[in-house]
Amino acid sequence: MILVSGATGHVGRPLVDELLAAGRKVRALSRDPHGAGLPAGVEVAATADLPLEGITSAFFVMAAFPGGTAEPIARLKEAGVRRIVALSSYSVLDDDPKNMIAVKHRDLERQIRETGAEWTFLRPAGGLAATALEWAGQIRTEGVARFPFGEAWTAPVHERDIAAVAARALLTDELVGEAPLFSGPESITYADRARIIGEATGQPVRFAELSHDEARQAWRAAGIPPHAVEARLRMFATMVGRPHEISPVDPYLGRPGLSFAQWAADHADAFRKGTK
């Protein structure tokens, strides 16, 4: 049986579908098992319980364990889980000690290596397309997408592509001991994202560039710690005017990656006026 942590999240949910389609038994972890809304045939359990009996492979998402990763990873080791596929980040290649995202993911990878289990670390680059959902409320109500760096370039990755690579790592031996790094198939700006969402919904979206102070206020109001807010501002500033390097997912999936336009079409209802 395969364990999927973060099973109702952006990557975990399509991964559950991939594994079911392959005929595999899945135990899905959720903070709210009763409200998970997962397909019939999936065994749903509470993340806090972390039941591991009968588990041979696991998909591990750091965000599913806000209390820290050391204890759940130690439990995977004690239970004899043979393979761990983890959602990491290409930021691990940045050795700047101030880059806390990189530091945390490097520590995650180290902890998993030390279990002695077979491992695969997924390192999506270019940002997750799903971060655009942060605009959903304002686009639905005002037709506006607000962000401080309209000309910052990314190569957003569709969560279905990440899930497909994760499924290959769980279902075959082809990616054992590998750290696949892949981006979305095209480099676009944040202003482009707003335009593409408008095209997908048939309701034009205006991009409104925030000042740095306005972004600070908005991000802090959203609960982002001040040090993380400043780190975000520095990171996005380095992306302005610099098209993102493309790292194709084709070698891992045998097909091109899904575009941001495809992602926007898949999620159009989240942005349409009159929907919730």
Task: Describe the fold and architecture.
The protein contains ten helices and eleven strands. It has helices at 12-21, 70-78, 100-113, 136-142, 159-171, 190-201, 212-221, 226-239, 250-253, 260-266, and strands at residues 2-4, 26-30, 43-46, 57-61, 83-87, 118-124, 144-147, 153-154, 181-182, 188-189, 206-209. Helices cover 36% and strands 16% of the residues. The mean pLDDT is 94. The protein folds into two domains: 1-124, NAD(P)-binding Rossmann-like Domain (Rossmann fold, 3-Layer(aba) Sandwich); 126-157 and 184-276, NAD(P)-binding Rossmann-like Domain (Rossmann fold), CATH 3.40.50.
Short note summarizing the structure:
The protein is of the alpha/beta class and 276 residues long. Helix content is 36%, strand content 16%. Pfam families: NAD_binding_10.
Helix-strand blueprint:
Blueprint: E1 2-4, H1 12-21, E2 26-30, E3 43-46, E4 57-61, H2 70-78, E5 83-87, H3 100-113, E6 118-124, H4 136-142, E7 144-147, E8 153-154, H5 159-171, E9 181-182, E10 188-189, H6 190-201, E11 206-209, H7 212-221, H8 226-239, H9 250-253, H10 260-266
Parallel strand pairs: 1-2, 1-4, 2-3, 4-5, 5-6, 6-9, 7-11
Antiparallel strand pairs: 8-10
What structural keywords apply?
single chain; 276 residues; alpha/beta; Rossmann fold; 2 domains; two-stranded parallel sheet; 11 strands; 36% helix
Extract low-pLDDT stretches: none
Q: Determine the N-to-C terminus distance.
A: 36 Å
CATH architecture annotation of the largest domain:
3-Layer(aba) Sandwich
Structural class: alpha/beta
The number of distinct structural domains comes to 2
Number of strands: 11
What gyration radius follows from the Cα positions, in whole Å? 19 Å
